[in-house]
Amino acid sequence: MDCPFCPSEDTRVVDSRLARAGRAIRRRRSCETCGERFTTYEVVEDVVPDVIKENGRTEPFNREKVLRSVRLPCQKRPVGIENLTAFVDRLEGQVAAMPGRTVKSRVIGDLILDYLRDQDAVAYVRYASVYRSFSSVDEFMDELKKLQDQKPTSPSNKPSDP
Ligand SMILES: [Zn+2]
Predict the structure, then answer these.
(1) CA of 11 to the centre of ligand 1 (A)
(2) Residues 16-36: pLDDT tens digits?
(3) Where are the extended beta strands (E) located within 32-159?
């Protein structure tokens, strides 16, 4: 494995453990030349069904993309990143357990809605109000970013509200 920080190929594994609910191996590596550390993941290919988007296009399930799409509505809300990461792990497991080679993006969107509904009303409404009316996650995320850029949180959005 090449070092991402210098041209050296001389890196070694310093730690190795299961990750993503046992579906991946996380390796911590150290470069023998520059001493930098980095992390790699080993995952089984092609176990998670591909996602069919609303426009009919198919793309691989992308956990980073799902994580981004749940992080955005949770900004400045009391939902921690560990919680979100654990959810994405569970979601990936759920999707992997679904029969067939493909899954509709709407199915994933609905699972995200169920999760956010349990976590935080504001995050849920943010996600639902935008997600329901857009045809793709990308379009949705653009809109969500616009909303967030508009103005600071209004008084009714205070986290301290019951
Ligand atoms: Zn290096």
Answers:
(1) 7
(2) 998 877 777 889 999 999 999
(3) 37-43, 50-52, 58-59, 102-104
Nearest to 56 by CA among 135, 111, 119, 152: 135
- d(C-alpha 37, C-alpha 54), whole Å: 40
> Which residues of the chain fall short of a pLDDT of 70?
44-46, 133-137, 139-140, 143-144, 146-148, 150-162
Residue 65 Cα to ligand 1 middle (Å): 29
DSSP calls for 86-121 = HHHHHHHHHHHHSSSSEEEHHHHHHHHHHHHHHH-H
Give distance in angstroms: CA of 42 to centre of ligand 1.
Answer: 20
Expressed in angstroms and rounded, the spacing between residue 40 Cα and the centre of ligand 1 is 14
What's the CA-to-centroid distance between 4 and ligand 1, angstroms? Answer: 7
Q: Give the start-to-end residue ranges of the domains of the chain.
A: 11-43, 50-151
Cβ(77)–Cβ(123) below 8 Å: yes
